[in-house]
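Problem: given the chain below (297 residues), write out its structure.
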Amino acid sequence: MVDEGKVPVESMFGGEIAAEDSVLAGMSTVEENLKDQFFSSLEQRDATAVVSDVVREALLQVIGREQMTSVVQDIQQKATSLQEARELAPPQIAELPQRIFLGSIGATVTVPFNYQWTWSAGTGSPSIATSADRTTGRMSFSLFGNFSNSSSVSAAVALGIYFRPMVTNGILRLFANPGFTYRWSTFCAFCSAHSDGWLGLYAGRYNLSGGFDGDVVNQQISLWNDNSWWSGAGAQTGSNTAFPLFAQMNVDSSHWYALWVWCGGGVSACGFGSPFWGSNAGASMSVTLPSMTWELF
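Solution.
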């Protein structure tokens, strides 16, 4: 008799589950794309800084550099206290039973998932922490700028499952309802600070020899995106116990697929190397993924 709480949905996957090494090799293409996006955003921020630095110098001449020292020290203290308490507790959400359903063909897949993945890129020695655990369904990232100098960082984490359709061609629908908590911040005085965070679905397609053949879903839903220069947005928090994610794609039995829930974010700031201006930014997110559901038509 099958345990009602753990139906063997692996029999619906259309073959033996692909090794994690093959999946992560394909994700190297995703990492290169994310890295290109990261350095492209750096170029845009550097171009903006050229203009904002001129404005800052003009304002400092009017206000007086000595007047700004205490202001910058106060902002730096607030940013430091936030970084010291940066760990986020994972959200508490209801567990769902693993199941198979008919009509169309579909399954709800619970932990342990098949794959886990983390990625990050940074300049200027920012603080970076990433984790993804397929056995618990939890993943997180925590990013903070360097307090001493200018820095930038971007990161992403993901949990995934294997899928290969049992029919020649079909339409696959993918659902997930992860819970999350997040905290982000921008603190600045006459220097820019940026923070962003997102959550979504990703589906990579592989040929039967294991070669990566592109993505069929690349979803990044923005949860926050702030660019500040004058004083910053301070510290902000948010949470959701069941954030609905959905994607639809064409699939075929000549390929297999890695289906992911992923999240990520980035920060960029000047640091507090000067007593007259400075900035810092943070982005932290903790996600609990109880299950992923697919439905094949």
